[in-house]
Structures are given as structure tokens and as C-alpha cells.
Design brief:
The protein has 259 residues and is an alpha/beta fold. The protein has one domain: Spore Coat Polysaccharide Biosynthesis Protein SpsA, Chain A. It has helices at residues 12-23, 43-49, 92-106, 125-130, 175-178, 198-204, 216-227, 242-256, and strands at residues 2-8, 31-36, 65-73, 79-87, 111-116, 119-121, 138-146, 157-160, 170-172, 184-186, 188-189, 194-197, 229-240. The strands form 2 sheets. Strands 1, 2, 3, 4, 5, 6, 7, 10, 12 and 13 form a 10-stranded mixed β-sheet that branches. A 3-stranded antiparallel β-sheet has the order 9-8-11. Strand 1, helix 1 and strand 2 (31-36) form a beta-alpha-beta unit. The radius of gyration is 17 Å and the shape is globular. Residues 250-259 have low confidence and may be disordered.
């Protein structure tokens, strides 16, 4: 039982590309949790047009969030349950991952695949990760992150380096450390293609929503590493559209600061 958690905010085009990549995985997902932050760009309408949801959220809502469920089918007629959760207050990316992981865990999914809306996993990305889920000590499995041109994004995964915390939180893994290897142990992966074991979540809890936007992934991996190991699988590739992400982050930080 595998679910994905996708956190989105005002990027409906990128979100639809992400969802299509998840829908067409060669190893099919059982569910996708879409956490909407709340978008103002017509994201719910786009999701409804493309069949991911069958009803729109109310414009005004007295509760903290609104949710709806639907079932879609991939090309082999495999059902994928869609959980759409819309916030009515901006909780940042951290709040979205907290809510998504909490809900997927409580629904009983064994592995939970985390990503932003500007992530696009290759069609066999999940299949490549699933080869290693039976490793006894694995609490997390990470994709190799690349930009749209195929350049490796080094800072998305690596090792903790605490000799000078003011300057170094994560030391990126170098090419020679994983080339020609099926997998390699790492300390940290961003929430872009990190597959988390529910047994680990049971022990350490959910991502910390208080971070709002940054470093929730770093802190969560520190907790994961206390109870097990995180492995990066170089053949499992996910495209992270960094240019768009930087623009998005600056907008979210401005919103948080009231600018």
C-alpha cells in the first residue's frame, strides 16, 4: 500500500504535470494526497476539469480545512484514490507535509512518497525505489534529483556535517560516491521524492509544521536517522523544476512576512 503526498500552492500547471507523472508510474500508487495551501489560481477548477476531484471546495468555509475524495484509474485500470485537502489558512509547505503525512499514515499506507508540486518523477522512479523496501533497516528511500536539463541537484541529498552548524547543515553527496552503485546510504533527502516507511513514522511522528517553509525535511531526516537508515537509489530519478521553486519560495516568504 503506497501513497504519495503532494503539497501545492498557486502552481496548477506544474501540479497537473506532477499528478500525471504519478498517475502513469510503472509501479502504481494506491493513493495520492493533494494538500492545497490554499491556492488562488484556479487549482480546484483545474483538478476538477482533469477528473481528479468531482466537486469544488466552498469559497468561504468556517473550518480550518475542507476535503473530498475521488477514485481515478491509470492506463491499466488500476484504481488510485485521490484525497484533496484544501486549507483555508496559509500553513506553508511544512504545514502541508504535516497534514499529508498524518492523513496518509492514519489511512494505513505502508510507504508514503513526499514531493512538491514542481516535482516530476520519471515513469519508473517508484518502481526503482520499491526494489529496496524490504531492506530491514530502511526507514527512507530517496530519488536522485535533477533539474529539467538533467543536471544533478547536489544539495537535495547528502550527509549531516555539524562541525560548523552556522555554515554547514548538509554536505552534498558527490558523484563518485554513488556512481555504479545500486544504492548508497545518506543522512538527508529533501521532501522531493523521499519515500518514508510508516513503521518509522510510528516511532518519530510527523513533519514539524512550525517550520512553515524551510528545513522541515532536514529536521525530519535527523529524526529518521535516529531509528534507521535512508538510502538514495541513483536509478530512481525525479525532476525538480528549481527555477519555478525559487520564485514560489520568495512569494511564500513574502506572504509570511506580510510583504
Amino acid at each position: 500500500m503506497i501513497s504519495a503526498v503532494v503539497v501545492t500552492f498557486n502552481r496548477k500547471k506544474l501540479l497537473l504535470e506532477c499528478l500525471n507523472a504519478l498517475k502513469t508510474q510503472t509501479y502504481p500508487l494506491n493513493a495520492i494526497f493533494i494538500i492545497d495551501g490554499p491556492s488562488k489560481d484556479g487549482t480546484p477548477e483545474a483538478l476538477m476539469t482533469h477528473g481528479y476531484i468531482v466537486k469544488l471546495p466552498p469559497k468561504d468555509y468556517s473550518e480550518f480545512l475542507w476535503e473530498t475524495e475521488n477514485v481515478i484509474y491509470n492506463s491499466t485500470n488500476h484504481p488510485i484514490r485521490i484525497h484533496y485537502i484544501r486549507f483555508y489558512k496559509d500553513m506553508g509547505g511544512s504545514g502541508g507535509f504535516y497534514e499529508g503525512v498524518k492523513r496518509a499514515y492514519k489511512c494505513g499506507y505502508h510507504w508514503i512518497w513526499l514531493m512538491d508540486d514542481d516535482a516530476e518523477p520519471k515513469r519508473d522512479a517508484l518502481e526503482k525505489l520499491m526494489k529496496y523496501v524490504d531492506m530491514r533497516d530502511a526507514v527512507g528511500l530517496a530519488c536522485l534529483k535533477v533539474d529539467p536539463e538533467g543536471n544533478v541537484l547536489r544539495w537535495h541529498r547528502g550527509y549531516f556535517y555539524f562541525e560548523d552548524v552556522s555554515k554547514h547543515i548538509v554536505k552534498p553527496i558527490q558523484d563518485h560516491e554513488y556512481k555504479n552503485k545500486n544504492f548508497v546510504e545518506i543522512d538527508h533527502s529533501s521532501f522531493v521524492g523521499l519515500l518514508v516507511n510508516a513503521k518509522g513514522i510510528k516511532k518519530i511522528g510527523f513533519p514539524d509544521k512550525r517550520f512553515f517553509l524551510h528545513y522541515d525535511d532536514v529536521e525530519y531526516c535527523i529524526r529518521l536517522r535516529k531509528i534507521g537508515k535512508i538510502y538514495m537509489v541513483p536509478d530512481s530519478i525525479i525532476i525538480h523544476k528549481e527555477y519555478f521553486k525559487k520564485k514560489f519560495n520568495s512569494k511564500r516568504v513574502s506572504r509570511k512576512n506580510g510583504l
